[in-house]
From TrEMBL:
One of its GO terms (cellular component) is cytoplasm. It is an enzyme of class 2 (transferase). SUPFAM superfamilies: Aldolase (SSF51569). It comes from Aureliella helgolandensis. Its EC number is 2.5.1.55. Residues 15-268 form the DAHP synthetase I/KDSA domain. This is 2-dehydro-3-deoxyphosphooctonate aldolase. Pathway: Carbohydrate biosynthesis; 3-deoxy-D-manno-octulosonate biosynthesis; 3-deoxy-D-manno-octulosonate from D-ribulose 5-phosphate: step 2/3; Bacterial outer membrane biogenesis; lipopolysaccharide biosynthesis.
Length: 274
């Protein structure tokens, strides 16, 4: 298993606890983003879990063209830079275009490839040419074994490290399901595997012009993934998810995140002893 260094965090190391990648879906404004980051840092410090803070400067794949997309790359990266400098947290954000890789890498310690773009070779190569590791979300339309070719593209291009992320598979219209077999299968490729607990409960297009979801299912799916044996868990959170301009239906309320992370930490300790 290749260890992937995300700033001071060694994801995939037997000595490193479960890696947590968490934050709001999109950067709404500076103050809210820093407030969420500070709360998450406190939770993870108390639980002894390493945290990578996640927020998107642009949601380029919104269902509706009129939906809120974020602050844009310049202002969004400025906010993420402040999170890193003031709170001492490594950060990650999505990139959608090859030209976004270099500026995002100047600020963030991890780059993320959205699921819909997992096979976009030019985007993968641009990310690999930075000195940052990459978290690639498995496309909802892809079999887990197909991710070995994504991994091969990135490694051949000299990527600093690769995480493979499971986030559910299309099951008819407006529904995602999780095949837990995909987690050990992708891990067998030699890359750490992350389970995206909140996007896995999305209901694409479930609200007509917006994506729906069922946040109550985040808890059992996250526990199941940790029991199977993953290297990290990804989740999105918000103080009031129902008012979030993006993915509110599947986000975990911020005031319940610590309880969920405590359960996942305790379960991961049991699993690590098997």
């Amino acid at each position: 298993m290749d260890e992937v260094n995300i700033g001071p965090i060694a994801c995939g190391s037997k000595a490193t606890p479960l890696t947590i990648i968490a934050g709001p879906c999109v950067i709404e404004n500076r103050d809210l983003t820093l407030s969420i980051a500070e709360s998450l840092r406190g939770f993870c410090e108390e639980l002894g879990l390493p945290l990578v803070f996640k927020a998107s400067f642009d949601k380029a794949n919104r269902t509706s063209g009129t939906a809120f997309r974020g602050l844009g790359i310049q202002e969004g990266l400025r906010v993420l830079e402040e999170v890193g400098q003031t709170l001492g947290l490594p950060t990650v954000t999505d990139i959608h275009l090859p030209e976004q890789a270099a500026p995002a890498a100047e600020v963030c310690q991890l780059l993320q490839i959205p699921a819909f773009l997992a096979r976009q070779t030019d985007l993968l190569l641009a990310a690999a040419q930075t000195d940052r590791p990459i978290n690639v979300k498995k496309g909802q339309f892809m079999a887990p074994q197909d991710m070995q070719y994504v991994l091969e593209k990135l490694r051949t291009a000299g990527a600093a490290g690769v995480l493979l992320c499971e986030r559910g598979t299309f099951f008819g219209y407006g529904r995602l399901v999780n095949d837990m077999q995909s987690l050990p299968l992708m891990r067998s490729f030699g890359a750490p595997v992350i389970f995206d607990a909140t996007h896995s409960v999305q209901q694409p297009g479930g609200l007509g012009g917006a994506t729906g979801g069922n946040r109550e299912m985040v808890w059992p799916l996250a526990r199941a993934a940790v029991a199977v044996g993953v290297d990290g868990v990804f989740l999105e959170t918000h103080p009031d998810p129902d008012t979030s301009p993006s993915d509110g239906a599947n986000m975990v309320p911020l005031d319940s995140v610590q309880k969920l992370l405590s359960q996942l930490r305790d379960l991961s300790r049991v699993v690590s002893g098997w």
